[in-house]
Known about the structure:
Elements: E1 5-6, E2 9-10, H1 22-42, E3 47-53, E4 59-64, E5 67-72, E6 81-83, E7 91-96, E8 99-104, E9 116-122, E10 133-138
Parallel strand pairs: 3-9
Antiparallel strand pairs: 1-2, 3-6, 4-5, 4-7, 7-8, 9-10
Amino acid sequence: MLRLRFGSATAFDHRPLVVPSRTHWVLLFLLLGTAVVLWAFLYPEPSDIRIRNDTGVPLTLVRINGIDYGDVAAGATTGYLKHQHAHECTSFTLYVDGVPARDSANCIGPPLSPGKFTYVLSLPDPHYPNRVLVRMRRD
């Protein structure tokens, strides 16, 4: 038999097979269980979100939380699109009569539970089309 030497040990040293004890199996089971629970908590099911345009004017290039909704006619409601999380506040970019409106809401707090939501867009003051108000409604 060919033996290779690396220092004082050989490449074919025989070591006894060690079988994990019951304690090791219990610890492994607890570790895997904890990982599954944490994964479910950190990555909840996605939410379905749609947009309703209550501004009275058409909105173009609507983007909510990084998801493109395209153009939304006055009074129209879009279909639902999947979002990783739904928050009571949102980040958006859009155009009102060609005027850019943008909001970068810093949402502090946990996301809402999964479900269906509608973000209702409105203009609190028609003289300032770049000030869009967003209200969240659970469907």
